[in-house]
User: Fold these one by one.
Assistant:
Number 1:
Amino acid sequence: MKTLWCIIIFLFIPFQSFAAAPNDLYDQRMELYKKAEAISLIPWYYFAAVDQYERSIRQARRDLPKPTGVIGIYIPPERWAGPLNQNKEDQNPFTISQFGGIGIDGNGDGIADRTNDEDVLFAFARFLRSYGTDHTHIKMALWDYYERSKTVDIILGKVKLYKHFGTLQLDQYAFPIPRRFEYSYRSTWGDARGWGGRRIHEGTDIFAHYGTPVRSTCYGIVELKGWNKYGGWRIGIRDINNTYHYFAHLNGFANGLEEGTIVEPGMLIGSVGSSGYGPPGTSGKFPPHLHYGMYKDNGYTEWSFDPYPYLKQWERQERMKKR
Ligand SMILES: [Zn+2]
């Protein structure tokens, strides 16, 4: 019997050790970012931001391979090997540099491998470094690399978050309405809408009384704040996974909240109202509720997805915590 248990334990241990615990993964990432910082003199949070942006893009897109290593940055073959390099899978640091590729041998094994964590991260570090080490030049480098202002803005938002919190662990979430307040909601994403022509309902409506506090659902940056004829007074927050959290029909905003403000889960951002469906200030055309939407950016475009399962999950997690 003892030997049987030994065999069973032996069979299970190797499988478990394959999957690194999330904390280990964050530690390994931070260690690599700090190494890149030491080499390039560019602060670690720039690498953390680019890496996290790219990881999220790869999760959201089917045309890119899913990340397998500690680092999530994907450098396309032609960029790695050089645009005129006939050998798209070139791993020779010398010929790659001859063809103007950005690939380098980062870990000193003689091979420039675009699937190796150190090779990839240090290649990106060297690319940024070639522009300069201050914020303005890094921004120019990011613009030249991605050629999309929204991507640059999203990455710089993450830079701000990582710098401010000093940690990579920013993926906790909260339900937008505090538990002690009355509210109700059901799954209505994708339903037809009555106002504003042929649009589908891109969110979940959480019905609550006027003035009920509305809280941030995530760590993020306020990307948008103001009036829209459909959404009324509304706020948009971009989280660490490139997801945009949209809060509409608000009665008002929390003091001091501006575009660019850093928020965290559970932080007050406004209150429930019924604003919208007309020019600025229009209110009371429908019962008060929070319209909550979620959108994903994939590096090209942004689309709405159903927030209902997430709301349910965050609500459940908070109930468990309070018990
Ligand atoms: Zn709605």
Number 2:
Amino acid sequence: MSGNSANQHHWSGVLSSALDAVGHTPLIHLKRIQEAQGLQCRLLGKVEFFSAGGSVKDRIAKRMVEEAEKDGRLIPGKSVIIEPTSGNTGMGLALASALKGYQCIITLPAKMSLEKEVMLRALGAEIVRTPSWDSPESHIGVAHKLRDSMPNAVILDQYSNPNNPLAHYHTTFPEIMASPSSDFENKEIDLIVAGAGTGGTITGLSDAIRDREKAFPEKNKTTVVAVDPVGSILGGGEPGNYAVEGIGYDFFPEVLKPNAPSIDDWVKVNDDEAFAMTKLMIRKEALFVGGSSGSALAGALKYLHSPKGQSIASNPNANVIIILPDGVRNYLSKDWFLEGAQGPSNPLREKMREIIGRELGDAYGTGSGVPSTRKEKKNDEALNGEVSDKLGSVHLEDVVGESK
Ligand SMILES: Cc1ncc(COP(=O)(O)O)c(C=O)c1O
């Protein structure tokens, strides 16, 4: 990492389309969490939801499309792009398709959020929901079936496309190295932590890191740690269900290089750990990250608190990069998010109730601290009378009506 914060800017001038606003994401110091965890090293988050389509996968979608156009596999206005994805690669492809005039079909496992589906539709993509990973009816199986029977259909295939890791080699890595850090004595990456889905992110980053190590053998080696959900086989363990989206598989994607020297260590993280860390980042760092970002942070903390991570954790000059792949926009309807980060007792809420002399009327309801969509509705019904007695009922139509 090098550069000067005064002359670094992530976008400047007029961009020709949203595709130019892919990547160029900020590296943000997670200082509050670092301090609360008693870590001496710097925790730095590469915050990918700032990218145009909202995730790290915009980068690979853009590169896969541009390279396929160069070699004639994709013809704007004619080709149909089909991709099996957990949603974010689809978002990048749908974004490129909307701008370049491709038809786009996304095959999406049932587990993936409604938010992803509706955002994809808004961009004009067609969606097929699929039941599972490993049958002919899986998102991959259905994508192939559609491709084989549709003229001009192309699967760019993030699982095997070399442009997936190369997007990170050529964009994510140089961005990290160029991030402003003129006040850092050490400008190298000591530890980098990322979740693995296709493995494109971690493989591309580690390829770039290892090449740099060859070019500068006098510099310290970077430790590369991959994070994997409990229930995925990539980092070991039995296949099973888990709720975090975008990372983990029950097969090894072709682009993933799971062993050393690419990846030094794997850390397993469960859903509870991932979602707790997601909420912590939103609450303490004001970063609206998604679930797999919580996995990455949880994995980083587990590693740093383990004996292997001690020398980095206790070094005030060490830089730890954590890839935060997407934002909570994708998960607003999920129970883990609706449950919120607040505990059941909250003195401020009690005080507010006391002052205004009634329930607060928000999703937290009666102060149990356990909101849910169902509870929110009940709470709404229960409070309707009370609130409208005090405030008079305000309807959206009334507000809109006034400005007509
Ligand atoms: C939310 C999220 N996190 C992490 C990843 C993992 O990235 P990669 O496929 O590069 O391993 C993905 C990939 O789709 C994702 O959607």
